[in-house]
Amino acid sequence: MASSGWPSPTRTDVHLDRQPSTWDAWIGTAADVDEHALRARLVRSAPDAWKGYRERALEESLSLLLAGEALAARGVLLALGAEQARGAPGTGPAGLETVLGAALDATDGDDDAYAWLVDHEERHALQDPRLTRLLAVVADSRDETEVADRAWSEVMAQAVRLDPARARRAVVALVSRRERDGLIGPMVADLLSCVALVRSTQVEDWDQVAVDAAHDLRARGDVAGARLLLRAFRAAAPPTAPVDRARRALTPAAVSVRAVANAVVFTVLAAGALALAVRWGNPLPLFALAVLAVAGARVVHVPGMTEQEGNVWQRLGAVELDPRRGIVETGAGLAWFAVLGVAGALSGLTATSAATSQLREAGRHGAWLDGGGGLALWFVGMLAGAVAAVLMGRWLHTAVRRHETARRWAAADREGVSPGAACRCWQVSALVDERALGYAGEHLLPLDRHRGVGDPLDRGDDLWQCPESDTLWLLTGPGGSGRTVALRGTAVG
User: What is d(CA 193, CA 195) in angstroms, rounded to the nearest whole number?
Assistant: First the structure.
């Protein structure tokens, strides 16, 4: 690994076997960023001062199982001689070794063990949220899609950070479980939470995670869910070519055409009503066409979606996800485009009226204009003005919004860790990929190979230390998730 440019530290007597608090921090943070294979290795390497042998073995087995290594997890339990007895459903919370035994038996096809695990999770997940994650993994291994989807959705609700593969699975679960005729607000919030979850993986190719999740939804036959997911990413995440390509491939051109047509039709109706009211001196046309426009706006239908999903589609065009403030309004819903269209229609009407007046003054086409041609030109002018205004406004809004979205996420990324700036060791506990490498290379000092009984360093792993706070950092090589991870320990003076 490249040197940071700082002078090499002289401290070479860091004894990790005397730092149980550092191990505790590393092991806990590895779970926080969903690196369970790494956590299992750290638990296995931890010094005796960290925890007792039995507790360590159970924690290692749990981490291996959550990492998808059921055979290795069972081997740890067998070496421990853990009991496999399960209580009857309805009894109190079982010990970790009992839960692990049931989970491993369920993974091997034991239906009774699986039923017990499902019941136990439903009763005691509030006391131990790890049960839900465990059930999600086991249910997936048994192709119990409905139970797995429910469990992964609840894992997302726990506001945990997941690795890219698990984030993709959780996103598919949450979108699949939406109520297609449910309330608009919860659906929009769930879709934007999918964006936040995928972005929290911190991997450079997060956009591919989103595209893969959309493909998984399509493979389930949920094309509408895939389209809604990609629209949410296009609306709330930094613009990327993979998401744009996937969205265009899954979204019929009729959807975009219809969205523009709806705005144009409603605005032309409103502008036409206003024009007729002015021309005839009677407000009745204005009232009647306004009622028709409002009624028409309520029956907008996006092809391939339920009415509520179509409303969610439209709503995603008027909100975005600020990484610091959450969901915020962009002020560009149907009403905004309607106002823009009305302004364009009135501009077209004004221009047409001026043109017809000049034609009359010039003595040209007077009979045709008085015979109804003038009114026809009025409507052509209104239509042209409305279409031009809506299309221009839509293009301008999209361009500005995507620029602002990219800027906001870039600012949030810099706030997460700013290489070369002030020490962030008390603000972040784990960094991934480019952030991890950047923080280590620009701020931390590489330590020489240290002495200690419990040595966590594997090939590709390095120990670093903050020059300001003396905090130890473990920078790991790519693990089971393929990510490089930096884990913060405790200060060693």
Answer: 5
